[in-house]
Structure to design on (390 residues):
């Protein structure tokens, strides 16, 4: 097996369990240094440390799979996938859609698998995991008797790995245009072929349920509404009125379908196609509850300053349209924006708005999006529930 030798004194993060090895920590590669492969990792004295996926084109040169001397083969993936499935078993009583594998959080870096009823959607984000695609699909097929496995491997992280987008059927049937799913008694329609991410924002499940508990008799502004999941939960919770704003015509059309699919009255829901930034700045109305769930504004570390300005703008204008005693649920899904930085941005918005604000709750991932304690970078979703005092 090819070997990666670390520079002297660079082994401490690996020994402590961090799964990434950057190019600057590597002294030499024994084997083909130009091809993705499974490599052993050794310290500068030749002591074996771990085994992982090597990619010569990435700044994260090795992503570790195991700290044991074990084969990376079908039995290995079956064990890891079975362990991941067992963690999600308790969700099956409330939903038939959940994240089955969450990359480093499930100690399978570069692999994301979402389940939508009888279909699995895979994302092979890194070159090393892409290299093992056949083994992964065989293991998934043998463990989960689903109708089909579909690939949605795309995005900036894959580009940084030197990979082109890849989409299509990997096993079984072609998925239908829309897959009906259920979540906490609500029904949704998911477009796994063309929707954002793998078709649905599974990571907001718990926060949607929170909205349902807060929405009774409130006027709600749902920004970046996408296909209306937060809106549906607000309606379920007894909201007086919900306005959903998004720039995507197709997303809002699907949101209206979901609204009707659940039997909600059209009197209590409006869908507005507008740019959220422009809408908030000019909004003449005031609301009891505002939900801000924008797409990632910082795809790369160099985007952090610009993204911080964007988040501040959104939160400033959201605070301005809230009534005294109103609630703001605000989120960042940007990996490069830390929780501490996000809270400071929102604090700056509160100061500039002249409002006095309480933090009621910090929000994050549901249990099907675990984060490895050794890899805090995996905690990408940050949220705050705020109360506007005056």
């Amino acid at each position: 097996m090819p070997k990666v030798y670390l520079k002297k004194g660079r082994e401490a993060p690996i020994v402590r369990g961090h799964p990434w090895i950057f190019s600057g920590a590597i002294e030499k590669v024994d084997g083909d240094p130009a091809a993705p492969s499974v490599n052993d990792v050794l310290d500068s004295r030749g002591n074996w440390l771990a085994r992982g996926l090597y990619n010569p084109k990435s700044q994260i040169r090795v992503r570790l799979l195991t700290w044991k001397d074990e084969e990376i083969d079908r039995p290995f993936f079956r064990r890891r996938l079975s362990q991941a499935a067992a963690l999600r078993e308790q969700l099956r009583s409330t939903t038939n859609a959940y994240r089955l594998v969450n990359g480093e959080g499930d100690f399978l870096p570069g692999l994301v698998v979402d389940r939508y009823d009888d279909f699995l959607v895979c994302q092979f984000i890194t070159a090393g995991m892409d290299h093992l695609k056949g083994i992964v699909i065989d293991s998934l097929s043998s463990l989960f008797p689903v109708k089909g496995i579909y690939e949605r491997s795309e995005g900036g992280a894959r580009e940084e790995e030197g990979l082109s987008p890849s989409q299509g059927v990997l096993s079984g049937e072609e998925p239908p245009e829309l897959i009906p799913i259920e979540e906490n008694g609500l029904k949704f329609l998911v477009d796994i072929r063309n929707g954002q991410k793998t078709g649905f924002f599974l990571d907001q499940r718990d926060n949607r349920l929170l909205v349902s508990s807060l929405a009774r008799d409130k006027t709600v502004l749902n920004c970046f509404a996408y296909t209306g999941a937060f809106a549906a939960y607000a309606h379920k919770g007894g909201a007086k009125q919900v306005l959903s704003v998004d720039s995507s015509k197709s997303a809002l059309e699907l949101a209206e379908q979901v609204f009707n699919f659940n039997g909600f009255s059209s009197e209590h829901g409006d869908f507005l196609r507008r740019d959220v930034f422009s809408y908030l700045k000019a909004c003449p109305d005031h609301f009891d509850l505002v939900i801000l769930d924008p797409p990632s504004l910082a795809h790369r570390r160099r985007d952090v300053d610009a993204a911080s300005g964007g988040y501040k703008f959104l939160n400033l204008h959201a605070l301005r349209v809230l009534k005294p005693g109103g609630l703001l649920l605000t989120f960042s899904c940007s990996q490069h924006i830390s929780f501490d930085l996000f809270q400071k941005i929102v604090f700056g918005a509160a100061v500039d708005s002249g409002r006095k604000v309480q933090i009621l709750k910090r929000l994050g991932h549901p249990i099907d999006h675990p984060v490895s304690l050794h890899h805090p970078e995996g905690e990408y979703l940050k949220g705050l529930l705020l109360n506007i005092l005056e």
Remarks:
- The first strand starts at residue 3 and ends at 6.
- The radius of gyration is 22 Å.
- The domain at 74-177 is CATH 3.30.750.80 (Transcription Regulator spoIIAA).
